[in-house]
Specification:
mainly alpha; 10 helices
Length: 242
């Protein structure tokens, strides 16, 4: 089920990325395009048919897994800043780009690399499943979810508030609600991974990860499509009145 879900989500993100290319070529929303491309890389490396050949090309030591985890940190920098700007939320932007935000990013990224270094994962294994009982592998997985959770915790209150804003356009409230849902799921993922160390809840982890990625990918597309619709409608009205 996970492979089919990942493949479907990869196709969705690639389509959404392609739709953003024309605007990016005009200098608009390049960060959003970059986020979709990087998310596509992360999801692609969650598919065995892609992960294993890529990792073999990198030496067959699960370097592709490390790249995927570090890439996800960069994705959440881009997504966090984009959402903060969309909501005109200066405190969140400052928290991400400020001294403490940079330290959290650097610290969690270094922790991911350190845990990977300590782990004994000499042969390619999808999701490091062959080494799931190793302490350092568990710590590595947990470390890789800390920075996304940090960004999510910052954004949940603001997106939830925007979703309840009665004066906002319905499409913006829906998008904000999706963001709040996605970030809420990401924020609790480290706790679920801690539980997974004692009780096997791997299926729950997969559901949370894929659901969060899906709703966070769809949310900005709703607002983008809405803007295009109203822009085209306005253009049609202007043309008709000439």
């Amino acid at each position: 089920m996970s492979e089919l879900t990942a493949a479907a989500l990869l196709i969705l993100c690639l389509v959404l990325a392609v739709l953003r290319v024309p605007a990016a070529l005009k200098g608009k929303n390049r960060a959003t395009l970059a986020a979709f491309v990087l998310v596509s890389v992360v999801i692609a490396l969650a598919i065995p048919g892609i992960y294993l050949p890529v990792d073999q090309a990198l030496g067959g030591v699960n370097a592709a897994n490390l790249i995927s985890r570090l890439t996800l940190n960069v994705v959440f920098v881009l997504v966090g800043l984009r959402v903060a700007d969309a909501l005109a939320c200066r405190p969140v932007r400052k928290a991400i780009t400020g001294a403490w935000g940079r330290r959290v990013f650097a610290g969690t990224s270094l922790a991911i690399i350190a845990m990977f270094w300590y782990a004994d994962v000499p042969v390619s294994s999808m999701g490091l499943n062959a080494y799931a009982d190793q302490f350092w592998v568990e710590m590595y997985r947990l470390a890789s979810r800390v920075y996304p959770a940090f960004i999510a915790v910052l954004l949940v209150p603001w997106t939830f508030r925007a979703a309840l804003e009665k004066t906002a356009l319905p499409v913006l409230r829906v998008a904000s609600g999706l963001f709040a849902t996605g970030f809420g799921l990401v924020s609790i993922l480290p706790v679920i991974l801690l539980v997974d160390m004692w009780i096997d809840v791997h299926l729950v982890v997969d559901v949370v990860v894929y659901t969060a990625l899906a709703v966070v990918a769809i949310a900005p597309t709703i607002t983008w499509a809405s803007r295009r619709h109203y822009a085209n409608k306005e253009k049609t009205l202007i043309t008709a009145t000439r």
